[in-house]
């Protein structure tokens, strides 16, 4: 790639809208926290753990991801994890980030909801003060668990309502269609929460349609399989429903065989509001700038695409109109527009 384009990708102001904070736990931090908390791991060393990061599909990743998260016990652990991610994001010129967190992964181990959310929130506040990096939280329901458990989690979350802007749906997609959570999402909508869901990652395009129709989500996380359905693709483009695409994740989880097979450019050519994100950067081999670099290296993407996706990342965010405009102006100025 030419050096100027590389520099543009690295330096351009950007927002990250699809990042699971538990997926930012690097093996070194997993081991440090395991030691601090006297948690026993199934892996003997950092190297052995990293070697296990060879996934055949989403579920084989999730098994290791939940095992990694088992070292998180105290508020300070959640702070340290989030701080480490925010430092990386700041270095990648991320100006705004919307983080997913999975409370059920922790509350089912006896960790209090407040411990999780307060630790993450304190790190977000520090990043805002120190670097002007804004952040918001999106609470995800684990779709392999029941509707009843999701409702119970929502109850636990209500005292912390001011600490998150929206809810999402993640974990094992196949066999857990969006409609399972239609009533939970309806309640969240009444509460004024913003709504997103993972759909069309491994699951069929129809899960994207039902996430829109039955969950009333505003953004689709992943959504790359929409191209299998021309009518759905046209609808997503017409309604400007953003897709938070995670290229390296899709390669590591075998949604596509190799980087050059990724459909990012096809999604853009279909007129979709595409953003680039890192999903679970500690597990998938790179943070947001690595995702941009590898895609632009492998596909015929240029400066105009970079400009478009930098703009999309802010316009698809849950920032208010004035904040969005401030960041969009910064993007326009960066690209000399
Ligand atoms: N949880 C963390 N990463 C995920 C992904 N890529 N898909 C579904 N659930 C997840
Ligand atoms: Zn995800």
Automatic annotation (TrEMBL):
Bound cofactor: record note: Binds 1 zinc ion per subunit.
Residue intervals passing through the bilayer: none
Record site feature (Important for catalytic activity), residues: 222
Sites where the protein binds Zn(2+): 18, 20, 198, 279
Entry-linked Pfam families: A_deaminase (PF00962)
Active site feature: 201 (proton donor)
Catalyses which reaction(s): adenine + H2O + H(+) = hypoxanthine + NH4(+)
Keywords: Hydrolase, Metal-binding, Nucleotide metabolism, Zinc
Binding locations of substrate: 280
EC number in record: 3.5.4.2
Single GO MF descriptor: hydrolase activity
NCBIfam families registered for this protein in UniProt: aden_deam (TIGR01430), PRK09358.1-6 (NF006850)
Protein name (record): Adenine deaminase
Organism: Noviherbaspirillum album
């Amino acid at each position: 790639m030419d050096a100027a384009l590389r520099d543009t990708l690295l330096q351009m102001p950007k927002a990250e809208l699809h990042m699971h904070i538990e997926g930012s736990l690097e093996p070194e931090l997993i081991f440090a926290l395991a030691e601090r908390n006297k948690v026993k791991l199934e892996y003997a060393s950092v190297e052995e753990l990293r070697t296990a990061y060879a996934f055949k599909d989403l579920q084989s990743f999730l098994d290791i991801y939940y095992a990694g998260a088992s070292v998180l016990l105290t508020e300070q652990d959640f702070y340290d994890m989030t701080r480490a991610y925010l430092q990386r994001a700041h270095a990648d010129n991320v100006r705004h980030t919307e983080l997913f967190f999975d409370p059920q992964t922790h509350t089912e181990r006896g960790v209090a909801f407040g411990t999780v959310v307060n630790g993450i929130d304190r790190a977000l506040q520090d990043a805002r003060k120190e670097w002007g990096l804004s952040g918001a939280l999106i609470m995800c329901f684990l779709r392999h668990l029941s509707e009843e458990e999701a409702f119970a989690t929502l109850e636990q979350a209500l005292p912390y309502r001011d600490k998150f802007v929206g809810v999402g749906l993640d974990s094992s997609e196949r066999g857990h269609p969006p409609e399972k959570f239609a009533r939970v999402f309806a309640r969240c909508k009444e509460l004024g929460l913003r709504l997103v869901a993972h759909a069309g990652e491994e699951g069929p395009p129809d899960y994207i349609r039902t996430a829109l129709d039955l969950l009333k989500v505003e953004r689709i996380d992943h959504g790359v399989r929409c191209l299998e359905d021309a009518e759905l693709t046209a609808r997503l483009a017409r309604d400007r429903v953003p897709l938070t695409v995670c290229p390296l994740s899709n390669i590591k989880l075998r949604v596509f065989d190799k980087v050059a097979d990724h459909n990012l450019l096809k999604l853009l050519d279909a007129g979709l509001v595409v953003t680039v994100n890192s999903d679970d950067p500690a597990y998938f081999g790179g943070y947001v700038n690595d995702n941009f670099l590898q895609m632009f290296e492998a596909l015929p993407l240029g400066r105009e695409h970079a400009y478009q996706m930098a703009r999309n990342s802010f316009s698809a965010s849950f920032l208010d109109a004035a904040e969005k405009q401030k960041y969009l102006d910064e993007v326009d100025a960066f690209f000399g527009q």
